[in-house]
User: What shape does this take?
Amino acid sequence: MEDKIKKARDAIAKAYKIIVFTGAGISKESGVPTFREAGGLWEEFKAEDFATPEAFSRRPKEVWEWYRFRRDLARKVEPNPGHYAVARLEDARSDFMVATQNIDNLHTRAGSRNVIELHGNIMHSYCMKCGLLADESEAELPGEVPVCPREGCGGVMRPKVVWFGEQLDPDDLDRSYMFASEADCCLVIGTSGFVYPAAQIPFLAKRNDACVIEINPEPSGITQIADYFLQGPAAQITPQLLEENKYADGAD
Ligand code: OAD
Assistant: This one.
């Protein structure tokens, strides 16, 4: 393992353009549950009851309750050493992107700057009628099913997350696909790699001959294309991999 980590570290040191693709596993040690594992969210809650447009039009109050519960949790937890290590790597790099499937805001809180949140951000809401955006990192909008605060609008607010059956933001998807297609290193952390179109990202990087490095305690849908599969928890392996990476862009 030590040797594999060293080789992966060298590949990162030599890379000019790095994309980090993350999923729920990177936040697990912060205390945010994953989806598909035993004890994950989709074991206890059915996605079709809480994470589809149909569920929201049928039971908006219950869907809001669920997202408020998850929002409260996301506010209470802290980024872990995995998030911080990714943010510090960006500090040393000029051509760097984090494309995350997570909605928990933890990459940004850890200090990452160029972050694409492919599935949205649980702290934000928007009006389904006029599109007004509300940032609720500080205070919740009032009401069990909040209405748009813009005078005279009266539209229903919804969480700014992508539900099953919905399209990802086309600009976000284009930007992350483009970046991945030009990257020479792709670090994949804590995702099952089963949810598309996001999971295409490492494959696009691989097509560009990028070195694909994966951190996960279990093999995933990405492992088959990984040059280095670093098996273990993100909060432990990511700093181990990145902390000693003090090289500047593309250094030999
Ligand atoms: P999943 O729950 O599908 O997968 C979590 C992954 O994290 C698995 O591969 C685990 O092995 C791995 N894992 C567990 N503990 C870990 C740790 N300590 N360190 C690193 N990895 C660990 O979550 P995602 O792949 O993120 O979408 O799921 C993708 C999307 O499916 C989510 O964004 C969400 C969900 O439905 C929407 O809601 C649209």
About this structure: The chain is about 35% helix and 15% strand. Residues 246-252 have pLDDT under 50 and may be disordered. The beta strands are 18-22, 96-100, 115-117, 120-127, 133-135, 157-161, 185-189, 211-216, 228-231.
